[in-house]
Design goal:
Elements (H helix, E strand, L loop, with lengths): L5 H4 L21 H8 L1 H46 L7 H9 L6 H32 L6 E3 L3 E3 H17 L3 H23 L24 H19 L15 H30 L2 H6 L3 H47 L17 H17 L4 H28 L11 H23 L9 H25 L26
Antiparallel strand pairs: 1-2
Helix pairs in contact: 2-9, 3-8, 3-9, 3-11, 3-14, 4-5, 4-13, 5-6, 5-11, 5-12, 5-13, 5-15, 6-11, 6-12, 7-11, 8-13, 8-14, 11-12, 13-14, 13-15
Length: 503
Amino acid sequence: MTIPNQPELAMSREFAVADVDEPTLLKTMHWYDGFVMALSNPGFIIATLGYTTGALGALGALAVWLGSMVIAVLQNKIYTEPATMFPEHSGGIAMYAFEGWRSRFSLAGPMSAIGYWAGWSSVLAIFGLTTGGLIQAQWFSDATWSVSDGIHLDLPRVIAIMLILGLWAINSLGVKPVKIMGYFTGGLLFIPLVLFMIVPFFLSDYSASNLTWGLEGADGSMGSTIQLVLAWLYLNAWSAYGIEVCATFAPEYHDTESDTKKALIRSAMFCLAVYALLPLSLGGAVSQSDQGAAPLGFYATLLHREIGSVGSNIVVVFMIGSFVLAMNAASAGGARTLYGMSKSGMTIKWFGHINKHNVPNRGMYVDVAVNILAVLFLPTTVAVLAASNMGYVLCHIFALSAVLLLRKDRPGLARPLKLSTPWLWVAGVLVVFNIALLAVGATSFSITGYGGWGEVFVGLGLLMVGCLLYAYRRVVEDKGSFSLRDKHPSTLVLEVRPETAAA
């Protein structure tokens, strides 16, 4: 068990250390287990690249997707420092935001955590519906029945709900089934990745003339173009920045310091290669107009050209596996965020429960309920994405700036992977950039065709809910007082069972 340093120990009265007899998170993961969880990111770009290319052209799509991933890689490097400073914290980057900001603005923690949770949890609804739609288009195109009387129900939504419930059941059984599911679906992912990243370059009809550039503002001015770029970078942040999911499992790695660093860096470099090659390979093989007309359907057409109709059906199954992988990572990561929030005093105690399989199951209940409601009551996935993205980007702003604040406010904390000074400057630049991204992207979202002001207000409402739950925890459950400036640094220690470290 990690023991805090003595000056901080004296100020830890309001934060309880986990009881050794209480079910806890187990150290059963290696760095490559976290890497597999981050393989959900290629699934994100596969699912949405057709929409981007259809709007911006292949080179425009390359610019915004590769730009987003370069930013994500730099952020992952910066997150290696706080990940090893607080190895006992479950919940990932939202916990770093909490630690860095609590003495200056206590609401930064709950706002970051609820934003982080919303960003990851929404993957269940979005990819459940995407998978359902792909299954319908590929094998059940005649099943066009639908119900739209207060709720929205059709075959894709039924499939989405079944997937959400199935993944909840698997994740509730512990980390081992989650890892097995991750390796199975992650392995399936590599086949379509090769067919989409490499093979198109060798097709006889691959043409550089298909690599068009459409990343220009409505009036052609520099200002409108910058606005368009920032809007798309803001949209892509929801998927590209997600490689930080490796940090969410920091307390569960065998060697927290080494495994967390390896998982963060290696997953980032792999995803960088994917995000660089996919727009070029697919853009040269399938025209902008064809991708725009069928943002998902064009994959089936391309696969038929590469391997025929029978092989195409098989690879579509593998594509579905990549989407299920994303949902699997979201279910596991979202539940741990709510658990970490509760253990850190940022939300109600009810979430701080672990079942007999050492899984934070109550967070999963909420994930399942919220996403099934989203599937039934929201007409498209657009509203889900647009609403959840605001809090997720805000979480990164708070987490990156927390690294700088912790250097200033708590210089005595151990930093096993201490960043050099140039990286602190990079962190500062990224904070400013993400602030601009949030300010421009959230208010210009409609120019991408993915939402408008209604989704902005939903995103603000989610942040407000996080703040209200934090206030309730402090005043009602902890019998304390609510303050915007919490002077006491956290010394939270989540007990991790050492006997499983060699498992």
